[in-house]
């Protein structure tokens, strides 16, 4: 089973990488871009067969290791 | 309108970051993890009102700047 974690900076946390990308996109004349936020995707291939259990374990992994709870939020999605 | 770009390494491209995370998860006794792939999420806030146009423009942005076409694939999703 494949579980996807999407980890983003919390609202209000400054995202310098996003600012830099926004600036670069404007230089390439993508004027419609107003804001850019950058985060991480982590796809986990697990042997678990129950999606509830897989989701719960992925949440544990995010809390223990993969996400910094002070400045990041995360979402868990079961892909397959 | 918010458009999400998910940029992942192509299948077959070595992902050392994923390997390191896999190893760390096993050290925390998450034995069910078999493989880990890491990618980037880029959320774009754009003034475009048509989702087709927003998707097309985000694809252009990915092709011109945000994704490295040699080693990365990307998906575009309209969030709101």
UniProtKB/TrEMBL annotation, chains A, B:
In the UniProt record, which is one GO cellular component term?
A: cytoplasm
Q: Where in the cell is it found?
A: Cytoplasm
Describe which pathway this protein belongs to, using the record's wording. Answer: Purine metabolism; IMP biosynthesis via de novo pathway; 5-amino-1-(5-phospho-D-ribosyl)imidazole from N(2)-formyl-N(1)-(5-phospho-D-ribosyl)glycinamide: step 1/2
Give the matching Pfam families.
PurS
Q: Catalysed reaction(s)?
A: N(2)-formyl-N(1)-(5-phospho-beta-D-ribosyl)glycinamide + L-glutamine + ATP + H2O = 2-formamido-N(1)-(5-O-phospho-beta-D-ribosyl)acetamidine + L-glutamate + ADP + phosphate + H(+)
Q: What PANTHER family does the record point to? A: PHOSPHORIBOSYLFORMYLGLYCINAMIDINE SYNTHASE SUBUNIT PURS
The name on file for this protein is Phosphoribosylformylglycinamidine synthase subunit PurS
Name the gene that codes for it. Answer: purS
């Amino acid at each position: 089973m494949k579980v996807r974690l999407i980890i983003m900076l919390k609202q209000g946390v400054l995202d310098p990488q996003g600012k830099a990308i926004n600036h670069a996109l404007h230089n390439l004349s993508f004027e419609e871009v107003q804001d850019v936020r950058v985060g991480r995707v982590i796809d986990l291939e697990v042997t678990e067969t129950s999606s509830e259990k897989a989701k719960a374990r992925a949440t544990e992994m995010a809390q223990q290791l993969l996400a910094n709870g002070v400045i990041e939020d995360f979402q868990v999605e079961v892909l397959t």
